[in-house]
Design a protein that fits this description.
Elements (H helix, E strand, L loop, with lengths): L2 H15 L11 E5 L5 E2 L2 E9 L9 E5 L5 E4 L8 E8 L2 E10 L5 E10 L3
Parallel strand pairs: 2-8
Antiparallel strand pairs: 1-3, 3-6, 4-5, 4-7, 7-8
Length: 120
């Protein structure tokens, strides 16, 4: 066996014996309330987004784009490090919940969740 193939075999053996490391990935939205494209009644409501990984809550945010096109940054409620939640007064019309999260692994993920509020 020549030196080159021997080094290759040793390198492959070292890889096979090395401990598995967790993969680093972006935070993925798993569930929401309201759901995507849902129609909900007006009034005060807690808006909740649940993710697959731990978040840096202090550096994450929720903002609500209202039917009049105004954008309100929402104050996050305390809770789980996998969940963003905020309370908002909702009026009839089309809304979009915009979110930006910083996963604990350092990756930023953004998204939008459209929903409608029905007339009373």
């Amino acid at each position: 066996m020549t030196a080159f193939p021997r080094r290759r075999v040793l390198a492959l053996a070292a890889l096979a014996l090395s401990p598995a490391r967790p993969a680093h990935a972006h935070a993925i939205l798993l569930d929401s309330d309201p759901r995507h494209a849902a129609a909900i009644p007006p009034g005060e409501r807690t808006l909740t987004l649940r993710f697959n990984s731990r978040l840096d809550i202090a550096r994450s945010r929720l903002a609500l784009l209202r039917p009049d096109r105004s954008l309100t940054v929402l104050k996050l409620l305390p809770g789980s490090d996998h969940v963003l939640a905020a309370t908002a007064q909702l009026t009839p019309g089309r809304h979009v919940l915009r979110w930006q999260v910083l996963a604990i692994d350092g990756h930023i993920t953004r998204g939008e969740l459209p929903f409608s509020v029905t007339a009373p």
